Structures are given as structure tokens and as C-alpha cells.
């Protein structure tokens, strides 16, 4: 097994730990942003697990469904929407939430259609799925309409996650409190940018770096979450802004 084939296994473990940590916070605090982060991270982990399967396994339509829908399309949007829920307290956010859920269900329906027309015979064992998914997915004109949805989900997720993390970091930096949350949010933003770059390269036909980008993203975002979530002293808490990405 090559190093590139091993990376999805490591990413899956990191994302599993990360997801459990976030969902534990949601269970304790019952805040919607933790729930959306947890769901999005679970999608990220599911996509990594599917990649790990394809690194050692044969063609599987269900695994390809999981990889493309959760790993390539939806996870960034759900994680980023969690940041929007934390930072923006406006009624229109509920409309965006409904649109995200409805859009995700629509994408799932389109993926069901695409998977029925997928060319499993084109799958080459041992080659990263990110490098050959174009040969497996049907063209847009032949039922692969779901491919049109991924840029919208990914751009929305990248803008909200990176923007939210940098905005939070700036608030703490301006108040000169909680430096750990400044660094933590910068790490989260850097992780989101790394997976965004790797995903862009994959859509341009260079899928070699996707698994490395995912592992870097998982590690940076988890490290940022842990650092930003360290408890504040009483003095720091009194001077801290009410918003934080973690």
C-alpha cells in the first residue's frame, strides 16, 4: 500500500475523534452550530472512509455514493453553515438553513440517479478514486446533474467556514484577549483553505493531492478546535466577544 493510499485511513480516524468531540459539545450545550458542525464533520469522515475502502477494495456503488455526496459535495457546506449559525443571529439564517437541507436532499436524489448510470467497469483498483471518478461518473448530459451542485455547496462552505474563522480571530485579536482562540481560528481557516485548494485541483483533473489535503485539513481544523476550546480565565471571559468558532 502506497502512502497516498494510507492517508484516507489516517484522515478517517482523525475525523472520527473530531466528530465525537463536537457532538459531545452539542449534547451538553444543545447549540445548533455544534450540531451542524458535527454532521458536516461526520460527512467528511464518511467520505474519508469511502476513500480508504477504495484504496484497498473493489468497485462499490454505495461507497461511491458516500464518497461523492458526503465527501465531495456536502460536508463543507454543513460545517460552514454551523459557523454562520454561530456568528449571525438574523431571521434570514433560518431560510438559509432550510435551503441547505432541501438542497442537500435534492443533491442526494440526483446522486441516486447518477449512481444508477455510473460506469463501475471503468474503476481501476489501486488507483485513487479522486483520480478516476470522472471516468466513473456519468456526464452531466447523461444524468450526472449532481456534478453541477458541488461548486455551490463547496463555495458556500469555504466562504462561511474561512470567513467565520477569520472574523472570530479578528474579534479576539482586536480585544487582545484569548490568544489561543486567535491561533485556533486561524488554524481552522488554514485547514479549510487546504481542503478547498485540494478539491479545486481535483475538479481540474489533478486528484493526486486530495488525500494529503484532506489529512492536512483534518489535522489543522481539529488542532484549531481543541486550541480555541480551551477554557478561559474569569478575566478573559469577561472581556471576550460573544462569538467564537469553537
Output the keywords.
246 residues, mainly alpha, 76% helix
Oligomer: single chain
Globally, the shape reads globular
Low-pLDDT runs: none
- Write down the secondary-structure element order: HHHHHHHHH
The class by helix and strand makeup works out as mainly alpha
Account of the 3D structure:
It is built from nine helices and no strands. It is mainly alpha-helical and 246 residues long. The chain has one domain (3-239). Helix 1 runs parallel beside helix 8 (210-228) and helix 3 runs antiparallel to helix 4. The protein is globular, with a radius of gyration of 18 Å. The protein starts with a helix and ends in a 7-residue tail after the last helix. The mean pLDDT is 86.
How would the blueprint of this fold be written?
Elements: H1 3-29, H2 32-56, H3 61-87, H4 92-116, H5 129-136, H6 150-175, H7 179-203, H8 210-228, H9 234-239
Helix pairs in contact: 1-2, 1-8, 2-3, 3-4, 3-6, 6-7, 7-8
